[in-house]
Amino acid sequence: MSEGDLDQALALQARITAFVRAFGLHQPDRTPCGTPVPTSEAHAVGELDRDGPLTQSMLGERLRLEKSTVSRLVSQLTGRGWVRRADRDGDARLVWLELTPDGRRAAGELAVARAARFAALLRNIPAEQRPVVIDALTALVDAAAASDVTGAARG
Amino acid sequence: MSEGDLDQALALQARITAFVRAFGLHQPDRTPCGTPVPTSEAHAVGELDRDGPLTQSMLGERLRLEKSTVSRLVSQLTGRGWVRRADRDGDARLVWLELTPDGRRAAGELAVARAARFAALLRNIPAEQRPVVIDALTALVDAAAASDVTGAARG
DNA sequence: GATCAATGGTTGTATGGTCGAACTAATTGG
DNA sequence: CCAATTAGTTCGACCATACAACCATTGATC
């Protein structure tokens, strides 16, 4: 690896660190979008809203969370009345999760808040640079997934 | 805001969400770089290593953390023997923080691990795209800072 | 100079988050 | 029919954060 590569790695690190802080990704009890909903719950509801009924392990895979964590998360969501644990014909071990009407409403509101937050973010990026930023993030995500040692092995 | 803008906001949201998950930013007790050091401690040590002695409030400002959180964080670090609370001439309210020799060593090791992790990330991005990605992240960080409502007002 | 507001930190309390290990129940394969 | 696997639950340990109440110091005002 050359000097330039190291410089790039350091630059990348600084940017990502800065972004995490600036975007408020540290607050567990609020989404960065300002909604007073715990982040993890927002993520879970979002997945369920987008991709219909899921089992807990499917959800855990998407969120990259351990099954015990998912179990608790789901309990919180059912307690909130947003998610229902529905039994289905077939494998009786599986717990199928689906949003309740309340959950769908909440998911919608969260989506709106999120869109507003990201729209605000976009407004602060020069218009001509926006597609570039999005493409760059795509590359970054792919790279993260490809270079992920810990996450894939865990769980 | 046009339709295209909304699409872009959604795309941006999806990418960032995906990155947070893929990069393992959810683990509080490990850095995403694989070191068994709590993330917040790693951040604090990094700041102190880079920018010399800091007061607690200065550190909190950089990390975007509330003063009580910083106080506890610093206690952990002193307990670990990485940070020293040094008194200095001048304002007696201020607590100046500096790394111990052990702390400097730890900071170095963390920096190495971090660099390795980010280098791995970079390797999975086509070489010609790397500068673009870094520039894009810069724009993103600036935008996040500019569009930050919650963070600036908090604390 | 005495008083009182502002500033920097600490401690207490309440949430929220994550994992790994031990355990149960259901399924699948020999 | 029993063993290994798979899906989830519960428990324990740890980490992260904020807000409020409190203390000490400082600095400004009178």
TrEMBL record, chains A, B:
**What GO biological process terms does the UniProt entry carry, in alphabetical order?**
response to stress
Q: Which GO molecular function terms does the record list?
A: DNA-binding transcription factor activity
Protein name as catalogued: MarR family transcriptional regulator
Q: Could you tell me which Gene3D superfamilies the record lists for this protein? A: Winged helix-like DNA-binding domain superfamily/Winged helix DNA-binding domain
Q: Where are the transmembrane segments?
A: none
Q: Which PROSITE patterns match?
A: HTH_MARR_2
Give the matching PANTHER family.
Answer: HTH-TYPE TRANSCRIPTIONAL REPRESSOR YETL, TRANSCRIPTIONAL REGULATOR, MARR FAMILY
| Alphabetical list of SMART domains matching this protein | HTH_MARR (SM00347)
Region feature Disordered, mapped onto this chain: 30-51
Q: Which InterPro entries match?
A: HTH_MarR-typ, MarR/SlyA-like, WH-like_DNA-bd_sf, WH_DNA-bd_sf
Q: Where is the HTH marR-type domain?
A: 9-142
